Amino acid sequence: MEQNRATTRVLIVDDEESQRSALAAMIASWGFVTDTAQDGAAALEVLGRFPANVLITDLMMPRMDGKTLLRELNAGGSSIPALVLTAFGNLETSLEMIHDLGAYWFLEKPIQPRELRLLLERAAAQSKLAERAARAELQLSYQGVLGELVGGSRAMQQVFALLRQVAPSKAAVLVMGESGTGKELAARAVHSLSPRAGGPFVAVNCAALPETLIESELFGHEKGAFTGALERRAGCFELAHNGTLLLDEIGDMPFPTQAKLLRVLEDSKVRRLGGKSEIVVDVRVIAATNKPLEDAIRKGTFREDLFYRLNVFPVQLPPLRDRREDIPLLCGALIQDMNRKHALRVSEISAGVMEKLSQHSWPGNVRELRNVLERAVIIAGEGAIGMGHLPMQFQQAGENKVAAATEPASGPSITLPVGSTIDQAERALIELTLQHTRNNKTRAAEILGISLKTLFNKLKGYGASDSDEGAV
Fold first, then answer.
1. pLDDT tens digits, 189-232
2. Within a 10 A sphere around the Cβ of 262, how many other Cβ atoms?
3. Nearest to residue 330, comparing CAs of 181, 126, 226, 124?
4. How confident is the model at residue 284 (pLDDT cuts 50, 70, 90)?
5. % of the chain exceeding 70 in pLDDT
6. For helices 211-219 and 255-267, what crossing angle results, to 10°?
7. Most confident listed range (20-24, 81-85, 120-124, 134-138)
8. 416 and 399 inside one domain
9. Of 179, 164, 234, 226, whose CA–CA distance to 202 is shortest?
10. Contact between residue 205 and residue 251 where contact means Cβ atoms under 8 Å apart
11. Does residue 179 sit in helix, strand or coil?
12. Do residues 235 and 244 touch, judged by C-beta distance below 8 A?
């Protein structure tokens, strides 16, 4: 029960500040996570950032009362158990609130703490059961789901099998795959299936941090360790104690930091910058990369001993173009997610649109598909997604997306000798596209169908100068 309380979020709605503050303090002392709102309208806003498991609301409030708040939540498909408080209770109101509006129970003021705590724990248990049932229903409806990863193809089923096998162990995992294939989702799946599921999951992007800050981010620092270190700060290893740490884009970690990371992995001890003592940490490390680390080893930018330490259990995620049969399944999952996110009611995708999506090469993988569908869902609002809801390049391309593989394209072209690698062909295409756009990287990324961040990462791998950002 203690663990349920620590993961149960309770929203208290009352127009009297003293009442809601006292109630929040009392409920927090029982171990629950709390937030407050001054009326029903404010509660709807708070729920956008605080997904409550249980709602405690006053009945009589200005702007929006408790009854209207429950009606709004019911209309939006919410099933949050609600405890309704009032000083003006009667049998008719009680029955309406409980049976018609989905309230869990009705309490008259002054509130008896013992009674409230009992009902709160029962409502929290009901909320947890509903969450588990919803997850189980989602798993059954897709027939190919592991955590937030979706895929019924043979390639993805093999990935799922590997993730299930490695999850119960303490082994380091190296997740490889192109940008947008779901490497962080794979790491989260391993964490959720492991004995560490109740612990923290911490992710750090090694490419997003400058070399001067990454060691502080990973290992923490003491006050005064460097200019700007105004207070002590725990690093990601400490924050992930008894949990899982994802080192995303590990191939971009500065070479000097790699030696310090290797020592932490071998000793399970971390020393903050400027610190004198070592701190024992129990962390399961998962690394992710979108570039072959073997190439970085040959170039001398990645330590071979660190590679072997991280590559205990490698998992390769396939690009979306190699598992096109998963696109309908992914679309169903993504549309359901977008409906919840934007409170819309899109039900399906037209056959013509599904054919168009299945033919696309998806250089940005599932992330690109998600972006395309999110736009389409917002524009459609409800019903089916039609061709007019897709981005303009899909509508204008017609069959050209399919024909592009066999018909010569206009403008400059590339000639590569037989025996060229995929990486060499990709680099040649990127460089030619940049020439065509006169080094406008934003336009080049659009033409190539990749994000600007992915383009910069690839150019960084080629050794391109960061001083010349080009026109954007």
1. 999 999 999 899 999 999 888 877 898 899 998 888 887 778 88
2. 17
3. 181
4. very high
5. 85
6. 10
7. 20-24
8. no
9. 234
10. no
11. coil
12. no
Tokens of 187: 């790491």
Q: Cβ contacts of residue 436 below 8 Å, gap of 6+?
A: 411, 412, 444, 447
Its domain, for residue 334, covers 321-403
Q: Measured between alpha carbons, how far is 303 from 410 in angstroms, rounded to an integer?
A: 43
Same domain flag for 154 and 212:
yes
Given 103, 137, 171, which residue is the final one in a domain? 137
Burial string for 342-359 (b: 16+ CB within 10 Å, else e) reads eeeebeebeeebeebbee
Q: How far is Cα 240 from Cα 202, in angstroms, rounded to an integer?
A: 6
Q: Crossing angle of helices 365-380/351-359, nearest 10°?
A: 160
Pairwise pLDDT comparison (71 vs 369), residue with the higher score: 369
Asked if residue 142 belongs to a domain, the reply is: no
> 3-class SS at 349?
strand
Summary mean pLDDT of the chain: 84
Let me know whether 421 and 377 are in one domain: no
CA distance 187 to 175: 8
In a domain, 143, yes or no: no
Structural element, H or E, at residue 13:
strand 9-13
pLDDT band at residue 48 under the 50/70/90 scheme: confident
Q: Does an H or E element contain 233, and which? A: strand 233-234
Burial of 126 (0-12, 13-18, 19+ CB in 10 A): middle
Of the candidates 425, 315, 293, 317, which has an alpha carbon nearest to the alpha carbon of residue 367?
317
Q: Which backbone phi and psi does 348 adopt, to 5 degrees?
A: -160, 180
Mode of pairing for the β-strands spanning 345-349 and 382-385: parallel
Residue 375 to residue 393: CA distance in whole angstroms: 13
User: What does pTM read for this prediction?
Assistant: 0.57
Beta-carbon contacts of 30 under 8 Å, excluding residues fewer than 6 positions away, are: 5, 117, 120
Same domain assignment for residues 330 and 341? yes
- Which has the minimum average pLDDT: 10-14, 34-38, 386-390? 386-390
pLDDT digits over 352-388, tens only? 899 899 999 999 999 999 999 999 999 999 888 998 8
| Beta carbons of 462 and 472 less than 8 angstroms apart | no
Tally the domains of the chain.
Answer: 4
> Comparing C-alpha atoms, which of 271, 261, 246 is closest to residue 305?
261
44 found inside a domain: yes
Question: How many C-beta atoms lie closer than 10 Å to residue 205's C-beta?
Answer: 16
